[in-house]
């Protein structure tokens, strides 16, 4: 059970159920790994009473403890690769930049995607080291791009909580030779939940250094409009759930129209994520989105 305090101040125990199917070749230790990862997700999602203990956070064939022990050395061995998903002008179709995405080519497990990779890093307390490696590697790559292309980097809660993050990132940008005004940092609600005021100060320091700031996955969480008041934002990046169904459901399109109108009133660029077909792109363009990212344009490369 998960302990919680209700509105009257009473501590209550809320039962949680994890549904799990033991897969061929799994040992009891692997099953416990999946259950432990699912319990961690349950703490982050207090409203969810039932969850699947799937493999998304714990790749098959290896214990979580082994992966955690391998991770730090993997960074030094350059097993952490950077893929770039292009971003496009939604009207003209030209490439305007790309988002850096990390993946781990593990010698035993194979390719480990970004979500399980960051989950492993968080459990092993290597999140800051991994994030720095991704930023440094992506900046070095992007320094050779044509001048009109921008780079987007994701920021973790550990990054923003670090007192010297703004200065450290600025130093990485200077050493790479990449111009600060071509860099977009993408932050999510999860990053902001711990200390919104502190995050706003750090982001303001980065903004003064010339870096641009985007609120990522907008519409996929609480949509706290206080973020729009406090943070020095340049762009809203819509969660893919804001795009799904817009070609079929007038209500979905109306929600998109309202969000774009709000962004326009605040002087923010709108990036539509998860565009998978031409109908979605055309509607997002007609409603005023400026950029898009998704498999219609290109997968991560």
What do these coordinates show?
This protein is α/β, with parallel strands linked by helices and 301 residues long. Helix content is 40%, strand content 23%. It has helices spanning 28-44, 64-76, 114-123, 127-142, 157-161, 165-176, 189-192, 196-208, 226-230, 250-265, 278-287; strands at residues 2-5, 11-14, 17-19, 50-52, 80-89, 95-106, 110-112, 150-154, 183-187, 212-218, 235-238, 269-273, 291-293. The strands form three sheets. An eight-stranded mixed β-barrel has the order 5-6-8-9-10-11-12-13, surrounded by four helices. Strands 1-2 form a two-stranded antiparallel ribbon. α4 runs parallel beside α6 (165-176) and α6 packs parallel to α8 (196-208). It is globular, with a radius of gyration of 20 Å.
Task: Tag the structure with descriptive keywords.
301 residues, alpha/beta, 8-stranded mixed barrel, 23% strand
Enumerate the spans where pLDDT stays under 50 for 5 or more consecutive residues: none
β content, as a range?
15-25%
Structural class: alpha/beta
Number of helices: 11
Backbone shape: globular
Overall pLDDT confidence: 86
Radius of gyration, in angstroms, nearest whole number: 20 Å
Main pleated-sheet profile: 8 strands, mixed, barrel
How many beta-strand elements?
13
H and E string: EEEHEHEEEHHEHHEHHEHEHEHE
Strands of the widest sheet, in order across it, are: 5-6-8-9-10-11-12-13
Helix-residue proportion: 40-55%
| Alpha-carbon distance between the two ends | 42 Å
